[in-house]
Design brief:
Methane Monooxygenase Hydroxylase, Chain G, domain 1
C-alpha cells in the first residue's frame, strides 16, 4: 500500500483502499454491536463479554486507520489547493474524494458516502446498546437493593436498599457490680 502521495492517482489509490478498510471495520462493528445487543437481551454474560472484547480490538484497528487518514488528508490538502478554500471545518475523506481530479472519482465519492452511512448506522446501534446496558444495570441495581433489603435482618439497609445510619445505639455496662 502506497504511503507516498506524489500524484492525484496515487492519492486516489490510497483513498480507495482506506475507504474499503474503514467500511469493512464499520460493517464488523455494526455486526458486533447487534450481537452485543442480542446478548444483553438474552442475558448472555459470556456473549456480552465476547462482543465487548471484539469491539475493543476493532476500535484499536480503527484508531490505526486514523493515522493513515490524517496523512492522506494532509497530502490532499497540499496537493489540491482548492480543497482547504472550500471547507470550513475539518477536511473529510468525502471532501478529498470529491476534489480528486482522477478517473473514478465518482466511485470514490460513492464509497465515501457508503462509509458515512455505515458510520451513522453504527453510531445508532452503539447508542442503542449503551441504552440497553444502562437499563440492564438499573434493573440489576434494583434487584440487588431488593435482595439486600430482604436479607438485612438487622435493619442495616433502608427501604431504598442503602446503608441507613439509623438511630443512636444506647447501651451501658455496669462495672461496679
Amino acid at each position: 500500500m502506497s504511503t507516498t502521495h506524489d500524484t492525484p492517482a496515487t492519492l486516489a489509490e490510497e483513498l480507495d483502499a482506506l475507504l474499503d478498510e474503514y467500511a469493512g471495520r464499520h460493517e464488523r462493528w455494526l455486526a458486533l454491536a447487534m450481537a452485543h445487543r442480542e446478548a444483553i437481551r438474552t442475558a448472555d454474560g459470556a456473549g456480552v463479554a465476547k462482543a465487548a472484547s471484539a469491539q475493543g480490538t476493532l476500535l484499536e484497528e480503527i484508531a490505526g486507520l486514523e493515522s493513515r487518514r490524517g496523512a492522506l488528508v494532509n497530502a490532499a490538502a497540499g496537493m489540491l489547493p482548492g480543497l482547504r478554500a472550500t471547507r470550513r471545518g475539518p477536511i473529510t475523506l468525502r471532501d478529498v474524494a470529491a476534489a480528486l481530479p482522477v478517473a473514478g472519482a465518482a466511485g470514490l465519492l460513492a464509497k465515501a458516502e457508503r462509509l458515512r452511512e455505515l458510520v451513522r448506522r453504527t453510531n445508532e446501534e452503539t447508542a442503542g446498546v449503551a441504552g440497553a446496558t444502562r437499563a440492564m444495570l438499573g434493573h440489576l441495581e434494583g434487584l440487588m437493593r431488593h435482595v439486600a433489603r430482604q436479607l438485612s435482618h438487622a435493619g442495616t439497609y433502608s427501604r431504598r436498599g442503602v446503608v441507613d445510619a439509623g438511630g443512636a445505639v444506647v447501651s451501658a455496662l455496669d462495672l461496679r457490680t
